[in-house]
């Protein structure tokens, strides 16, 4: 079994990672973590921060005892496409994404990336949101 998760350094991204780790531990699944980076966003000090973040991510996954792979897509132009293609390529059984809270009007329209992932994913999608506490 393979689980793909989209990861960002946000509360939503952290919740998605937490949920995917829990599911991977429960099922013995392999975890593929997708880190999408937009072209030109890693310059100077931020490049060092990025490397430190990736090292911390790898260490956490190892500490959690889950089989994992971290895929960094450096010239990403479309996060939804990155996740859907990774799910297809890896034969994913589950795709995990984080959703942010929206205003009452915003709830009428799901975020475009989330909507595309839900519609185009080749497997079930687990959408999680961070706890407000």
From TrEMBL:
Residues 2-129 form the UspA domain. This is Nucleotide-binding universal stress UspA family protein. InterPro entries: Rossmann-like_a/b/a_fold (IPR014729), Universal_stress_UspA (IPR006015), UspA (IPR006016). SUPFAM superfamilies: Adenine nucleotide alpha hydrolases-like. It holds the Pfam family Usp. Belongs to the universal stress protein A family. It comes from the Bacteria. It comes from Sediminihabitans luteus.
